[in-house]
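Worked example 4.2. Below are the chains of a multi-component assembly; read each line carefully before continuing.
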Amino acid sequence: MGTGTLMILFFAACGTGILISAGARPAYQGSILVGLGCLAALAAAAAGAQVLLSGELFTQSLWSLPGLTTLTLRLDPLSAAFVLVTGLVLLPASLYAGGELRRASLRGRERAFTVLLLALYASVVLVLIAGDALLLLLAWEIMSILCYLLVLTSPSREDGELGSAYRLLAMGEAGTLAAALGFLVLALGASSLQFDALKSAAAALGANARFGVFLLTFFGFGVKAGLVPVNSWLQPAYEAAPRAFAPVLAGVTLNLGLYGILRVNADLMPAAQAGPGLLALIVGTASALIGILYATIDNDLKAMLAHSSIENAGIVVAALGAGMVFVATGHPALAAIAFVAALYHMINHSLYKALLFVGAGAVETHTGTRDMDRLGGLIRWMPLTALGFLAGTLSIAALPPFNGFVSEWLTLQVMLRAAELSSIGSKIVFALCGAALALTAALAVTCFVKVFAMSFLGMRRLEQRRVTDAAPATLVSMAILAVLCLAFGVLPTYVIPLLDPASMQLHGTSASDALVPPFFASAEGHGGLPAPFAQEFHDLGAQVGEAVLPGRGLVVLHRGGTENPVVFAMSTSYMLLALIGLLLVSYLVIRLWLTRHRQQSRRERWDGGVRQLLPEMTYTATGFSNPVRVIFDAIFRPTTVEDTRETVAAHFRMAIRREKERVHLVDRLVFQPVRSATLGLAQRLAAMHHGRINAYVTYAFVALLIVFAVLAMS
Amino acid sequence: MSQWVIKGIRTGIKTSAYPRRAEGAAGITPGLARGGGFGAGAAGLVDRCLTHALDRTEGEISVDQRRCVHCYRCVRGVAQPLNWDMTYEWTGPMLRPANELGPPFQRSIHIIVVDAGDCGACLNEVKQLNNPHYNMHRLGFFITPTPRHADVLLVVGPVTDQMRFALKKVYDAMPTPKRVLAVGACALSGGVFAKSFVCANGVAEVLPVDVEVPGNPPPPLAILHGLLVAVGRQPPRLAPAGHAPATAER
Amino acid sequence: MNRTELEEQIERQWLGQAQVGVDGATRAVEVSCTRALLVEVCRHMVEHGDLGFAGLIVEEAAAEWQLRYVFYGDRPTDRVQVRVSAPLAENVFPSLVAWIHGADWHEREAQDLYGVRFAGHPHLGDFVLHEDAWQEGVAPMRSGFDAQAALHHRLPDADWRPRRIVQEPGAFVMPVGPKFSGVTESAHFLLETVGEDVIRSSTRLFYKWRAVEKLAEGKTVEEVLLLAERFAAMTAFGHGLAFSQAIESIGGTEVPARAQTLRVFLAELERLRQHAGAIQEICESTALAIATSQAGIVEEELLRVSGELTGHRYLFGLLAPGGLLCDLPTAACRRALGRSQEILARLNELERRLGSSSSFLDRIEEVGAISAPTAKAYSLVGPVARASGLARDLRRAQPYCGYQAFDFEVPVEQEGDGYARLRVLFAEARQSVRIMQQAAAALREGEVCRPVHARGGAALGAVEAPRGATFHWVRVDEGGRIVRYHAITPSFANWHSFHLAAENFAFQDFPIILSTFDLSVAENDR
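Applying the procedure described above to all three chains together yields the following structure tokens:
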């Protein structure tokens, strides 16, 4: 099918869904969402894949607005990468959302939810395939409002939740405004608002204007991506969003922010100086570090996942910044690798974050709580959910053979490539950011070990309550996402060439050549090498894989030049085989040899001889993450709300009550000072409003005098 | 730090050569009562023992080592004291024949020590096994705090009611093969504390005991001998400690 | 204060409501008062007379309860007992805990063992008889309870929960024991924490409760002497001595001079050996291996000295009411003294090296501190109290066995932390050898035992055992059999305050703090 046909199919599915759902009864809403949502998702994924595989461009003019621009649709490889991942995530997300609706978890608002969600699908894809700035901004605006409305459909109506939704809208609008201003500056010298025209206009912009555009669009689109310091809306909004919407919010709409940044700063206006790239790198790293720190100490499943989304968006932006620096300093191959790393991490994050949100939603549905301090031991009652959640945890902790490992590895390798830069300042920034990203990775492992262990393992802390495993729809959607996570982790050598066109568009050379060079893949590729090297190469056993695994099985990072390439080879697909092999061999050794003449007995755990080991005697999530809280105290700066000791008869301790409150670092450093400054200013200005009519007449008189003066002068 | 190393080297070797050679230093054992032929005065001597460890049959006094609490009333303040010898190898044969731990364990076992109401002296003697004079590590004996790694359970004390559950839990948590060593008069017969509403008559009431080491407290060398018997490296010395004469319940 | 002063004060304040008398042969002044006046009178003793609270002795006489609160001070005449009585049916007494916190555990023990209630005590119960293992209302020390009854045991109560004090989100309780570490006594601790520091610790003892006091009832003096020596055998001589002194007081017997001097010699030998053991524990808890070995050598050699001199490493079988069971040759004593002095030199060198080992000091300095006011409020005794500035030693304050004739110092430190307690242990070891030297020189020929006929009386034996002041109350009936035996042990007093020392320190500091207190569970549990 042609790309155009697939696009029409997508929008038709969404439209039909909206119409049917507007008239159908609440009981059928779930099925509508599943049926048409999945269809739309498949269409989108297919369209994206087709454009990436064929490398063709798809454009379509819609209608022209004289004096402004022609509204155009444009599906180029960059958009296609995003459309592909959108489709991949929307498929299981629709399944899950449909299942939630069928279970009436939205209590009466199913119709609104389905309509809004399908409209959101359409607007998201519209943002991604917009070919000119006006359509992009229009679609963006619609998407923002739809997100706000969808968060409002949440069944609980606490004040805090209303505030979170409003903050989402307000900061989203501020971001949109900034982005629009950025486009405005970009379009000053352009003939129309179409991307081609903007690209040629951008080449003529001065350095200051470029930096201005960069700042405006970076932080403007960065609101959606959750970059520090514009991310304080993200965690409350993700927490307040209904369970059915959270996977889409985290897995799809977050990518739009990244798309916006990429589109403007890497495609339309490629970096000419290292400055913007370094700034992006620093901001990304800071977001990553702050995000994971708050995730590690948070005990609420959804809030923790929200902070983790900030972390992962930060990593993507860091890789992106590195790519911009390499573009500016003339290292196209490294830039290609950096952009591939960024796009790969974006895809991976969408997949495993959606998986984790679905899992968290399942846990909340069946246990009634999201607080990790009160969960525990769920693996006995929800084994399949635990399995899916485990896949997500391993992915986000960047452990092979899952997908997080590949993109994290590629990102860190990109940071190491700073050795090839010439400027010492850049090298220092790269080194520091690389170290910070490594710290982030370590903290991520801590965080997710805590999440999985405290929620699913250990002793059950919940009081009497029947806990069942998740519904089939949820389990199927988790299975799809888990399989995708595994696939993207085991087959990076296929994914990288798939993403290659996208990164080539961003002014790089082909990353495939660097990462999956043909000479490694098969004997034919050896023709391009000097003979003695090819000889040695063969002895390395690079061909071994060919018989075992069909197709490309190695990911490589190397560069030394074509004369004497230095090769560092690593393969996640072989890693998976080796893992399976080792586990199998260990199992056989243990069963057939070590335990042959031994009996196995199962006894109660050893607990020091206490009469009864109670759940309250085991580590809580707070206890597990306490060392992080203590070490990074300077960042968290908790304020003590209560620290009382109640004693009786001067020596009997009856109660020790301690409670601390934490204000987010960004709020503390950025928003609270701004707010207090603004309020202070407003208070001073309020002095003008004292209600005396004489003064107001004076103000009017003075204003009139100024107008006369200006008119007289001109 | 170097001051400690130098001090350690200059202190030299204090370790006893037991079991390669007998240990002859003074004060290493309180000794043990020995029965034997006795003339007149046997009745009086038997009455003097407050824990009923002595019994008289036709002019011979027999000693139930399990009950002797080393009060020395049978040797001090009497005209004709009981025989007393200053040995320290007091462990009898395993309570189930040929039940020693055997080859894989002979040179390396892990011991878990449970205090089931002991007075402190038996536990202290067990602690002395780690000091330079005895150094049980050279024989391959190690103390472990977890029953999962333990081969030998060493119990001191007359198993109080409130420790009973914990003691059983320790035993149940140990993997096989496992052996139980009851050390001290309290662990063998309840000592001066049995029998009451809070004390059992010794460990045998709660767990299957394999090796009994009498004494109150048995000196470290006697405990060492008991461990060596349990792993089969040393032969037992005494006749079974406990051809207990029938005594009325106290 | 002596009797006349006390009488004046009592008359002035509570004319007619409280009487002062002398109790038997104990020299102790006894103030009898009503239940209503109990708190005031006891407060007067502590606040006005600056006396320390030793303990509470509960007796179930034929038709009434008799409670005796024992107070003692720094002078030999400072020994006061406050007595209240009430008919058996009325078993509620006012609680002293608001003013004398040291009475806390005594009242809880009385409640568990006798069923006597104390109005105003915030937390009775779950002390000797664990809540999750015993049913309500069992009062084993009552006369109707048969000590030979079938062994009680039942499965643990599934609904029992530990008492939680800390209310902080995410707080949990770490259980330690009863079986923990390598070779330790059985005790249970509940450490409330949020993950790094111990916010609050609570101690649960009496897992080793053997009901020695119940077993003693109806037995002869010799049998109970065996019990007294063996319930806490690490300080067997100290406890046996206190018991023997009580019996000798009842019988009105004066112990011969040689026996007294030998008793002093042996008591100090035991103190030296016990302190060496405590030092070894402290070094072992901080994992300073060579220092542990050095201290271990010292302890083993002292055990051998004890064994060579007396036949038993822990000095069993020496005491008898009226003196000693057998004589020890003076030459042997002098030899033992010589060996002890050599061993002391090694101990002094160890102290010097430890004092210059900064990694060791880091772990015990300013760790686990008990302040002087806390020590006073909790009525602590022994080296623990003396390290917190509470200078009271029964050998000085209430001399026995002729201690007044000996020349020695009572070391006191002010900081109250682990290092202060360690320094006190080393200093007391030196003083012990000093006393032993004087005792060995003062030995004269003579008999070592006089017969004692203890019939129909009661007395309190007070001895400064190695861990602190211990008081043994004994009442004998007309037939010479024990009617009531109550041992107030130094560990009972000091365990009470241990939980304060462990708070606000990390888990890793817990065993170190525990070792610096030199506590014995067996001594506490009896």
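Take a moment to check your reading of the output against the notes. The two ends of chain A are 64 Å apart (CA to CA). Residues 538-542 of chain A have pLDDT under 50 and may be disordered.
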